[in-house]
Structures are given as structure tokens and as C-alpha cells.
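Practice set, problem 2.
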Amino acid sequence: MVLREALALLDDEGFEALTMRRLSERLGVVPMALYRHVANKDDLILGVIDLAVSLVPIPSPDLDWRSGLHQLAHSIRHTMLEHPGIVGPVVTQPALGMHALVIGEYGLAVMRTAGFAPEHADRGPNAVLTYVLGFVALEVPRLGLLENARRGIPNGLDIVYDQLPIEIFPHTVEVRPRAEELVSEAQFEYGLHCILDGIELHAPRKRRR
């Protein structure tokens, strides 16, 4: 109850709002009552992180390593987007709860089953995880850009590009990068496949596609 309400508070008001006093107000109890459930705020944050991680769907163990890591990456991203308030503590707070260990075990299992050496079985999933966390950390504050793009609302960059001297920025003027593309679904897939392609270079030869 306490952790679920804390997660809801994060989703509604952001990480800065997660205080013992604010949480007790939402629960309708005095702040001291929370200490029956958590030792302190750090313990509360670790509990909330573990709760959020527990919501990540674990892919089938029957998938090959590439499909497994690909699906796991999307599971983590989608869970974090459903609970955007968790992004701050997940990125900044070292945590290794039971559910995080379950995710880690899955990554190691699909890699070792595929025949990867222990070093690459560890570093491969780590590369995917850090990519997902970094991408979502950029994505959440920019969700408004994506929504505006879907509504056809300009972001102002076209005006900037129109004013750039082409002799200095010929490629920028030609490509005209879109701000929302930085955190789009297509960009996420592009980066994820690049990482998986790199991991595949370390796969045992008989296992390579």
C-alpha cells in the first residue's frame, strides 16, 4: 500500500514531490506512521524502484538471445514510460532489488544459452540496459515534443534552419533534423538494433545468423 501510493505520487507529481510528509498526506496518516513500513526515505526509494521493476514483463526464456534482449528492452522502456516519475530515481539511485536481479538473470540466461562467453554474457545485456535507461531519461522530458508533432504543432526549429547560412551548415540545412525524432520510436529501434548488431560480433560463430 505504501509503496504503491509512493509510485502513484511519483507519477502524479514527480520525484521532487516524494517526501515522507507528502506521502503521509496522500495516505491520510501522520508521517511517523510510515516508519512502520520503511526505515527512511532512502529505504522508501529503494522499495519504490523494486516495485516499478517488478512491473517489467519478462520475455519468454525460449527466445533466442537477440529476440530476448530486444523484447526486454521494449518491456523496460514501456514500463518506465507508464511510470515516468520513476526515471529519476532509477537513473540516479543504485539499486539491486530482487526484481532487478530477476531481469539480470534473464539477460545472462539467454546469452549463456546462446554460447556467449561470461564476459560478453554480462556486458551485452548491460549495454542494452544502459541504452534504454539513457534513452528514456531523454525521452520523458521531451514527451511534449512528440505530442506536438502528432498534432502538427511546429517546434520552431524550421525557423532556425531557415536562418542558418548554408555555406557553414550545408548538411544541417539539407537534412533538417527534427527535435522529436531524437526520442521517437524509430530512433529507439535504430539505436537498439545497432547495439544488438555490435553484441552479435561477439557471438560464437556457429550461433551467428
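Problem 2, part (b): a different protein.
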Amino acid sequence: MVFNMKIGLLNLEPKYTNLALEKIRLYHQGLGDKTEDYIPLAYCTYDKIYCSSIFTFTPKNNLPPNAICGGSGFDLTTNLPQEIDSIKPHLNFGYTLRGCCNKCKFCIVWIKEPELKRDSTILDLWDGKSKLITLLDNNALADLEWFIYNCELARKNKITLDWNQGLDHRKLTQNIVDIIKITPHKELRFAFDNPAYINTVENAIKLLKENSINRCSWYVIVGFDTTFEEDLFRLNYLRNNNQNVYVQRYNKEHLDKKYIALARWANQHHIFQGMTWQEFLNHPQNKQYLKLF
């Protein structure tokens, strides 16, 4: 078979499927090009090389010369051409809504995508077979009408939804909870970003428990604009309310090592639920952490 061009696709975080690269793959395949994951030894055989990164902390050394690079790991301004960005890979994950209106200081989403925009329905993401779709929406509840519509599609097609980036706990109402309850879903995720949100977090947990949603998972960013004591306060509050957590270390490569211990305790749910912070530190296996405090 004769191909027009040979395209190399370099994902600098191969642990994660890169949505932009998958769109590029489909685009070039549609043009009759051969696409493959980049192989360094085959560098001279490629007509074009695309490179993408999500995280700024991913090393960018030794990139192929002349590679076309993009993604938030490089900058917040490079975008795919419309004819590529509009492609809908049926990978069972992706966005229904792009952008966020919250403008959290630690987040790049509102800078990269300042306008809320309907991106896809869940059927645009679905391969027609999978029973699960993972949604990457940064604020799915910001467009309630679109949220409800996609939940209806999920119910109709017996698809379970995973709002992977979390839902805004401040936007929860009885109506929204009623919709979530009848929509197949994985464990709900929310965020407790600052101690100042204690009242809204309390209200959200109360509302969820009143509707028999007794345990959710909460993202807790640490090391940004809060003290260690404030971070521990949030974790203990969630633990006391029988919630799961996931500690997100801001700028983790430069963060104090004591936050590693905090994450090791909190991010392992059976440990977090089974022992207090002090019990974790006092455990014989954690002597290396105890000396940090």
C-alpha cells in the first residue's frame, strides 16, 4: 500500500491517551497518510512529527528537530487547526463542555479556554459498545441544559458516566442531584480547594447524604495558598464525614517533602479511612515521614 506521507506522533506522557494526537492521527489517516507512534530510530523516515504534552513539569529535552509541538505542557496559545480540532475520535473519553467560568488562580483552564463552549455530546465520544464514558469537562454543571441532555443520552443508551475532573459542589441543587441519581455514574468527584468553602462543602455533603449518596471523592489542592495546617484541616473534615479524598500537590517538584507523606496517607482510601493522620505517622513503616514533623 502506498501512503502519501509518514507521520510520527510523540506523546510525552504515554501513561495518558492524548486527545489532540488522536485527532491528528485520524486527520492524517483520512488524507491517506501512514501514522504511527514516534520511534526515535525511525526519525529520518518521517515527513512530519507531532509532539504533545499536558504537563509543564514533563521534561522537554531531546525533542525531535522540527517537531510540531503543542499542548498545555508547552504553552497555552497553540491550538489545533479547526479541521483537526473538530474531529470526534470515538475513544469513550473526552469533553462535552470546554472551558470554565470560575477563574481559580491555580488553574490554567480559564486562561487557555476563557469561553464556555459546547464541544460534543456523549454519543460523539462513544464507540457504540463501551458501557463507560470518561468525561474531562472542567465544569460540566456550568451549562445545566447541556448537562441534563447528556445525562438523558446516557440513560437512554445505558452508559455509565465518569465526571473525571469533578463537579462543582457549589452548583449542586436538589434538581441536579435528582438527575445524577437516575443517571448511571461512577463515584462522584468534587473539590475542596480552600478552607473558605467549608460552608458550601458542608451543604453539599448534607444534600448528597439526604439523597443516599453517602461517600464521594474530593480533590484537595495543597501547597498553593494554604498552610499545611489548613490542608490537614480540610482532609480531616472530609474524613470525619466519611468522604474519600485525592490530594493534588501544587508545583509538586518544589513542594516540601511533608506533602508527600500527606498524599500517601490520604490518597490510599483504605488507609485514609482506616487510620488517623497521627496513627499513619506513628506506623512502623512510616518512620521516614515522622522525622519530617
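Answer key, part (b): The first helix runs from residue 19 to 30. The two ends are 64 Å apart (CA to CA).
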